[in-house]
Amino acid sequence: MKKSYEMDMCSGPILKKVLSFALPLMLSGVLQLLFNAADVIVVGRLAESQSLAAVGSTTALINLLINIFIGLSIGANVLVARYYGAKSEKDVSETVHTAIAISLVSGAILVFLGLFTSRYMLELMGTPEDVIEKSVIYMRIYFAGMPVVMAYNFGSAILRAVGDTKRPLYFLTLAGVVNIVLNLFFVIQLHMDVAGVALATVLSQCVSAGLVLKCLAQSDGPLKLHLKKLRIDKRKTLLIMKIGLPAGMQGAIFSISNVLIQSSVNSFGSIAMAGNTASAHIEGFFYTAKISRR
Q1: How far apart are CA 289 and CA 294, in angstroms?
Q2: Predicted confidence (pLDDT) per residue in 177-219, tens digit
Q3: pTM for the whole thing?
Q4: DSSP letters along 135-201, please?
Q5: What pLDDT, on the 0 to 100 scale, is given for residue 293?
């Protein structure tokens, strides 16, 4: 008999339910920061300051491009939870397949943006000449993995919609370990510099996305993913966008301010950019801890 990770939030002691649901969610946020910080730590310790500056200078731009699409995963989460609570299995199944299809389309759009516009956008941000080549390499490799990034985010959002916050945490933990190991291997053994940390990130994200999709494919009931049923349902897509786009726009607006700040830092050269990269990741942990206490 399969172990059920789904959670009934409508009955039983509320405090225990909230803690059981929220703690894995909070830990996932911290792990995601560690995931991102792994690249910075490895290049900071084992590569040049220009490499650290290259990795850090792309963070705000990457977040700006992906936040709108990540917002759509919130829409999918809310919609699946609504139909699941209403016990409308047909609507749950249609939303699941629509959400995964949207994730793949979103990933393809982001691949195009990353491959063909990264240099132009980095030039607009005033990225120094001794950094921009490495920044472009990092961004292009990173964005090549966007379909799996989107698949993980949408897939984990679907699982969380039914109260399953534990398995996305387990998958993210495993992916984080893979990321660190591959980072060290590519940078120390193969001397791949920023290309190595970007490739390690993409491969580790393939692990987390693959596990989430496998989990959905092996699920029982309306959450079960059938590849042949993948299609974009117009009505479900509009509902997902209605809920998710405002959340995505909110994240994008916040990212715009970070892009402007990063552009200002870029004017001071690669050493200042490297220092800002290190401090920004430390600040991220404090910010997440502050949000988690609310």
Answers
A1: 9
A2: 999 999 999 998 998 999 999 999 999 999 999 999 999 999 9
A3: 0.89
A4: HHHHHHHHHHTHHHHHHHHHHHHHHHHTT--HHHHHHHHHHHHHHHHHHHIIIIIS--HHHHHHHHH
A5: 45
Residue whose entry in the numeric block shows the structure tokens 């829409």:
75
Q: Tell me the two tokens of residue 287.
A: 């910010």
How many CB atoms are located within 10 Å of the residue 261 CB?
13
Q: Residues near 183 by Cβ (< 8 Å), separated by ≥ 6? A: 38, 39, 42, 196, 197, 200
At 56 the pLDDT is 82
* Sign, Cα dihedral of 157, 158, 159, 164: positive
Tokens 């792994």 belong to which residue? 38
> Does residue 13 sit within a domain?
no
How many domains is the chain built from? 1
And the tokens for 22?
A: 């929220």
Q: Is 14 contained in some domain? A: no
**Is the confidence at residue 1, as pLDDT, over 70?**
no
Helices and strands (H and E) in the chain: how many: 10, 0
Residue 264 lies in a domain: yes
Identify the three-state secondary structure at position 6. coil
Is residue 10 one of the residues assigned to a domain? no
Q: What is the pLDDT of residue 41?
A: 80
- Which domain does 181 fall in, by range? 25-292
Q: Which whole-number Å values give the CA distances from 253 to 65, 119, 219, in the listed order? A: 11, 22, 37
How far is residue 3 CA from its own chain's centroid? 27
For residues 266 and 126, the answer to whether their CB atoms sit within 8 Å is: yes
Mean pLDDT of the 250-256 span = 87
